[in-house]
Amino acid sequence: MLHRRHPRHAPTQLDTRNIRLGASASIAAVLLSVFALTLTDRGMEMLGRGVSFLEYYAGVLALVSLTATVALGLLTTERVFLSPANRVRAQLAHRAAAFAGTAFLLTHVALMISLEHVSPAAAVIPVEGIYVGFGTIAFDAMVVVVITGIVRGRFAVTGRPWVWRLMHASAYVAWPVSILHGLTAGRWAASWVSWSYIACLAAVASALLVRLLATMLRPPQTAEWVDAPEASDAPVEVPAGVNAPVSLAEARRKYREAG
């Protein structure tokens, strides 16, 4: 019995070098724009307003992005409702949401430290009380998720993908803990913020429901029989003259006759 393996998805042009170059160019453009704003008084005023906005809402934006990351992560490996091409698109959206969430999270942590709302140690160690500590735990878990996402290929090469899945599952810890942090730390949340948290819960719950339904509807995996020639113990007969030794003189003679 032989087992014939099929590719997990069809070839796609979505995950290409041009997309990565475009993302890098976009980041460089944003950084250059920020630097240009610092050269004028009007630009500094605009940056001040932007910092004030991010001081209050960078954490919310990080939570929304993390919610999209978790929901898409639940759907990317699904083979019942999603076609191979759509799974690839979902994986790209999952990576984009994770990148945006990481950027907002780092911005949130940097602003909280630079504005002296928390100590630098609070970024990695829960030393500022239980409510801020929820954010610290979520940040540490998110760091593990990002690192494992970057080095995913190394786990696949070592033949221990279960280690990667276990470590990458830290996202399922970071997400609910970050919601607790957002609801309890800092100022009292506005009504629309609370509703956004409820929407985040509904989004992940919906993705989890789809994943469970697909798992139940997935057909069982069975081995596939492939026709193959029968093995035989009979010796293989080699025609006369094949691979027979030829002297150097004989080879030269044949070469001259052929020329």
Automatic annotation (TrEMBL):
- Provide the transmembrane region boundaries: 21-40, 56-75, 96-115, 130-151, 163-183, 195-214
Keywords from the named record: Membrane, Transmembrane, Transmembrane helix
Q: Would I find Transmembrane helix among this entry's keywords?
A: yes
The organism's place on the tree of life at top rank: Bacteria
The protein's name is DMSO/TMAO reductase YedYZ heme-binding membrane subunit
